[in-house]
Amino acid sequence: MTKMEKSYKTVWANCLEVIKDNLGEDNEKLYKTWFAPIKPVQLENGTLTIEVPSAYYYEYIEEHYIDLLRKAIKLELGPKGMLKYSIVMDQITPITTSAPSTGKQAVNNRPKDIPVNLNDGSQKDMPNPLVFPGLAKVKIPSQLNENYTLENFVEGDCNRLARSAGYAVAKNPGTTSFNPLLIYGGVGLGKTHLANAIGIKTKENHPDKVVLYVTSETFLQQFMNAGRDGRTNDFIHYYQMVDLLIVDDIQFWANKAPRTQEAFFHIFNHLHQNNKQIIITSDKAPSELAGLEPRLLSRLKWGLSADLQAPDVETRMAILKKKLENEGIEMSHEVIEYIAYNINTNVRELEGALISLIAQSSLNKKQITIELAKQMIDKFVKSTSREITIDYIQKVVCDYFNLPVDSIQSHTRKREIVQARQLTMYFAKKLTKSSLAIIGLQCGNKDHATVLHACKTVANLAETDKQFQCWVDELDKKLKD
Ligand code: ADP
Ligand code: MG
Prior knowledge:
binds adenosine-5'-diphosphate; elongated; binds magnesium ion; Rossmann fold; 4 domains; GMP Synthetase, Chain A, domain 3; alpha/beta; 5-stranded parallel beta sheet; Helicase, Ruva Protein, domain 3; 53% helix; 19 helices
């Protein structure tokens, strides 16, 4: 051991003593996490260089322990003593940075201070991240659900923007302006499916890219475990190696997990700076994600926020057909239509209804008929407090009069169509909780006064015209059936 070597080692060892003494509560764990992995590398002109395992480390130490470090360095090297960091990065970007021990401005100065590559290969011996052995050799499994492909993700007005953004991202991950891509929407509308699908497509387009899907909950759990085992740094490193990172259901972190959010913030920055793609999903719009750390939230708004809406009846039908096709099951158009019209909450429930129906029919060896579908949906939907939809009323009324469903939307003044429209409005008012304004909107973009007028007209006609009364009764029966 040379004299020079000894002295920088001694200086750092003495600093560590000071640090240990001053860490306060929980000191052993903190010491193990943040200081034990640091290696002293050089002492020159009163500047001690220490090697930290990642940029995240450096930032964390600067943020939380700068005063302590300053104190230790001052004690060891006198008032002019300086501290310099050498950051061991993963293979992507080896950098060195220096920071005077006298303040946090070092963080801001960082870009200017990245001249020398001190990466001498020592990181090859670095402890592995979450899996043994050896970081460089770790193959990151994508954790993607292979059934959730883009081909299986039916397109509709409700998801067009998000879906096409997904295609663009999968083609050029990290280099479109959709970075991060934030997909948000209510439960069961396809966020997880779409996020996975983009991951799968990216893999197809770029087989050598590292894609990683993780739920925010798993991420949090891993982060906590890593902290407990003194391997926070490995954890951060692991995530920084990824080319496309998908974090599902980020709203889970709201109002909790500040440290997890902080770690993710650093990972996010690293990935974004290195043109790596990030995809986030959330069941809330960014404006409603107030429980997240503001600086993280502001990052999420950098790219594109695309929402998923509830699918319209045509898309619901297309989704059902796609599922049936994938399962290799045949079902009559009538039954598909019946399900699509009656389940309008979200895609998960739509699928649930379909699966129950298929199960029913195969268990009881019954044909899948419209009657079976009705029975099943009645049971199914009762448990999820069903409401008759305006779509469904339109369909029943149009079928009854042998009119095409979209005629209700048309502007024609043909008597039979006007009547069908008025009947639809009447039943929508009677059987749904929708406001007059919504009913009008869905029945050919009329205003609420038109709806009110229609309801009165139907009531009057039913009193004076026997034939009309008969129609109303029959329709009423059909709708409640
Ligand atoms: P979320 O994550 O928004 O709660 P999921 O992605 O889990 O919803 O979707 C719920 C179910 O609905 C999944 O089985 C998914 O395959 C299906 N699904 C959602 N949207 C579509 C779509 N556009 N095409 C086909 N299947 C869909
Ligand atoms: Mg989901």
